[in-house]
């Protein structure tokens, strides 16, 4: 029994000026590589990376071990990418939960992921979400029992917010560990 990671990195990044999967941080590390490394260092295995816009370029930035790359119908919005990641997770034998994050959260760190994904044995029914000063953010931990229903419910660019609220997600404050800010513009 394990928890896998899902890193959503499919969008075109229109406000950023290029796909966020191709953005390099001020530290010189690509956000994509940082996101995967952070999920892996928290013990998540494997990490599913959902790509879309300029996927061929993004693949070159990924480590070659313990990563499953899937391409989504990203033009249809975040729901298509999340659905794609969940469907890939459904094929991972022994995965009881998935910790989901976004590529554009450059200060995501291992401590934040560990607080949400926990060191305990994952529950197939868990719903847990990081919040930062009460503001919902990532990562989000979703137990396997929720994957099919959640995947069916997804539409447009809304992600899992409605599903999580309706199903009693546990909110876990993480502002002492990181900002949780997702970056949409190059000047940020």
Automatic annotation (TrEMBL):
InterPro entries: MobA-like_NTP_Trfase, Nucleotide-diphossugar_trans. CDD domains: GT_2_like_f. Residues 5-167 form the MobA-like NTP transferase domain. One of its GO terms (molecular function) is nucleotidyltransferase activity. Transmembrane segments: none annotated. Pfam families: NTP_transf_3 (PF12804). It comes from the Bacteria. This is MobA-like NTP transferase domain-containing protein.
